[in-house]
Amino acid sequence: MSGEMINPMDECAGLNDMELVRAVKFLADRARHNELRLLSHLSEFDTRRLCLEEGYRSAYEYCTSALGFDEQEAYKRIRAARIIRGFPEAFAALQARKITVSALVVLSPWLQKDNAAAWIKTAEGKTKRELEALVAARYPQAPQPDYVRNLTTQTALVSSAPPLALEVGVP
After folding, report:
1. Of 98, 88, 154, 159, nearest to 131 (Cα)?
2. Could you list the pLDDT tens digit for every one of the 171 residues in the chain?
3. Contact present, 119 and 105 (Cβ < 8 Å)
4. Measured CA distances, 139 to 1, 56, 66, 76, 135 (Å)
5. Most Cβ neighbours (<10 Å): which of 22, 29, 73, 93?
6. 3-class SS shares of the chain: helix, strand, coil, % to 5
7. 116 with 89: CB under 8 angstroms?
């Protein structure tokens, strides 16, 4: 069997309940560890602008094309990588499992040197939704103006309709 890849589903099916629980916890711990390492490396990669040397216009393009992340994964990881670069306390909180990457992304537009520690402390143990509510309460958005769009003056032609069927006021 050397060199042969074991199907993870077959591996899981062969575990008893206690082994499966232990394996899930172990793998989740490893995933968190690897995520922190990835964010650290991505932060340095972004700082050095290595995406340009690799032939990409942005870190986002590099993450989606070269690394195969979907758009949301790329956005969250780049955002978090930039936050941990600017706010070391954010990395410490991630490492201690006090906050999540999603929490950092929610807080990212509002973090500044003078409030980062307080926001990160506030975020501890909160869900993404709870944080969104806290941010919305603290920084309510101004009412957005109605969206106005120019409409074309040309009449749309529908070939299957009788000529006057779409005209307003026609009996």
Report:
1. 98
2. 456 778 888 888 889 999 999 999 999 999 999 999 999 999 999 999 999 999 999 999 999 999 999 999 999 999 999 999 999 999 999 999 999 999 999 999 989 999 999 999 999 999 999 999 999 998 887 566 666 666 666 655 555 555 554 455 544
3. no
4. 59, 35, 37, 21, 6
5. 93
6. 60, 0, 40
7. yes
